[in-house]
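Subject: Predicted fold for Bone morphogenetic protein 4, 114 residues

User T.R. writes:
Posting the sequence so we have a shared reference for the thread.
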Amino acid sequence: MFNLSSIPEDELLSSAELRLYRHQIDEAIADAISDDQALHRINVYEVLKAPRPGQLITQLLDTRLVRHNASRWESFDVSPAVLRWTRERLPNYGLAVEVLHLNQTPRHQGRHVR
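User M.O. replies:
I've generated the structure tokens; pasting them so everyone works from the same file.
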């Protein structure tokens, strides 16, 4: 869950971001990957309903295309979800982060919910 309990009720949020640090892929692996295979897509979703095993109902909040050869921070706009949770008092079921390698089959993809 995205903990918002410390924000006073009289505060108005204007924006919110999720920052993720990503490590570059190991050089030995990276050398074997051609430039056209070096891209990953990172998707950040709001989870709209309580998760059930193997089933998430989500809404895409932000996405980014990244190269595998750099360690760096990535920032994602999660304002729409946080504003719904604070202004509209909708339930907070958390965020889901999905990393897609653009040239791999779905069974090699990763998705993480928190």
